């Protein structure tokens, strides 16, 4: 399979997250991204040192630059369960822009 490039359509799959009411949501990537320009990035695991101190903060800090380029949403995907992803997201108290999405069984990751 060829790698995904800028401008390509993402494959569909189901990812999980806790919404602002703390309700677990299982949603398709296509529904999350419908009509939007999105940045999708993945990391090997929640709470890994480099991802926690470099990757995630870098995307949080660059949010305004992404918005200026027309990006509507920033999605972080990791092969963890939604409870771990929620806990990890809570360590970034100032984050309102990167959505932490769980791919617990790695099905979506394999589709990429």
Explain how this protein is built.
The protein is of the alpha/beta class and 112 residues long. The protein has a domain at 38-111: Glutaredoxin, CATH 3.40.30.10. It is built from 5 helices and 5 strands. The chain has a 3-stranded parallel β-sheet. Strand 4, helix 4 and strand 5 (98-102) form a beta-alpha-beta unit. The N and C termini lie close together (9 Å). The mean pLDDT is 93.
Name the descriptors.
alpha/beta, Glutaredoxin, two-stranded antiparallel sheet, 5 strands, 33% helix, 24% strand, globular, redox-active center
Summarize this entry quickly.
The protein has 112 residues and is an alpha/beta fold. It contains five helices and five strands. It has helices spanning 29-33, 49-61, 63-68, 82-89, 107-111, and strands at 14-18, 24-28, 38-43, 73-78, 98-102.
């Amino acid at each position: 399979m060829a790698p995904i490039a800028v401008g390509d359509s993402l494959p569909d799959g189901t990812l999980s997250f806790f919404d602002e009411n703390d309700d677990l949501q299982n949603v398709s990537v296509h529904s999350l991204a419908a009509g939007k320009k999105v940045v999708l990035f993945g990391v090997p695991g929640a709470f890994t040192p480099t991802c926690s101190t470099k990757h995630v903060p870098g995307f949080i800090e660059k949010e305004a630059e992404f918005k200026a380029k027309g990006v509507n949403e920033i999605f972080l995907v990791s092969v963890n369960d939604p409870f771990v992803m929620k806990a990890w997201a809570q360590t970034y108290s100032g984050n309102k822009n990167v959505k932490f999405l769980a791919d617990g069984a790695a099905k979506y990751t394999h589709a990429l």
